Amino acid sequence: AQSVAQPEDQVNVAEGNPLTVKCTYSVSGNPYLFWYVQYPNRGLQFLLKYITGDNLVKGSYGFEAEFNKSQTSFHLKKPSALVSDSALYFCAVRDMSNTPLVFGKGTRLSVIA
Amino acid sequence: DGGITQSPKYLFRKEGQNVTLSCEQNLNHDAMYWYRQDPGQGLRLIYYSQIVNDFQKGDIAEGYSVSREKKESFPLTVTSAQKNPTAFYLCASSGGESAEAFFGQGTRLTVV
Predict the structure, then answer these.
(1) Cβ of residue B30 closer than 8 Å to a chain A Cβ
(2) Distance from CA of B30 to the nearest CA of A (A)
(3) Is the link from the previous residue into B8 a cis peptide, with omega within 30 of 0?
(4) pLDDT of residue B2
(5) In Å, how far are A54, A59, B33 from B58, measured between CA atoms?
(6) Residue of A1, A22, A14, A47 lying closest to A106 (CA atoms)
(7) B90 and A44 in contact by Cβ < 8 A?
(8) What is the band of A97 on the pLDDT scale with cuts at 50, 70, 90?
(9) Which residues contact B77 (CB under 8 A, 6 or more apart)?
(10) Which residues of A touch B94 (CB under 8 A)?
């Protein structure tokens, strides 16, 4: 069975500082990994994905994530946080295309000016 | 303008009523999904469909029903058997060359 763990419910960071939101996963076979962002009372917006290839994936709004197979991790990063990055972030995994995504419980990011 | 449309945005249900949430997509995706979101619990899968006229239960299907008569549409009915239906419901689709799922804007259901 697939699973995702986001160990931090809340991450606080000062504007301009680097941010990291952690994600670890469990899946049989090769993982497809995703990050989504959600603003209040809205749907999920896709940020980036890892399917194959380079372990460092770049996505929307300056976000990137690093796939680490040995640590089964896919942490989300950004070099310089903005107040507008404050939102709820979800990591997700699937084991093959078109099977349902399995989500973590989400991490609330708060960027303080 | 391609995407997924959920309606209504807000829905109020009385005790004992069935209500149906609409989800329509014009992305030509084969697969569609319904998730339920509760505070602190992430997204939990209710039902999914990988092809027209076929669907499978997810992790929390009890008290819900779906149909997939058209590729574009995947409505969710919340029945009176669902004891705690107040939640934010999200519909998604996937297919083609993209592995990611695309989400609608959600329907917030409240029992009154």
Answers:
(1) yes
(2) 8
(3) yes
(4) 65
(5) 32, 29, 9
(6) A22
(7) yes
(8) low
(9) B18, B19, B20, B21, B64, B65, B66
(10) 97-98
Give, for all 112 residues of chain B, the pLDDT tens digit.
569 999 999 999 898 899 999 999 999 999 999 999 998 889 999 999 999 999 999 999 999 999 999 999 999 999 988 889 999 999 999 987 778 899 999 999 999 8
Q: Are B49 and B67 in contact (CB under 8 A)?
A: no
Question: Distance (Å) from the C-alpha of residue B3 to the closest C-alpha of chain A?
Answer: 12
A36 interface with B at CB cutoff 8 Å? yes
Is there a contact between B100 and A9 if contact means CB atoms under 8 Å apart?
Answer: no
Closest CA to A43 of B55, B91, B72, B53: B91
Q: A40-57: string of b/e by CB count within 10 Å (b at 16+)?
A: eebbbebbbbbeeeeeeb
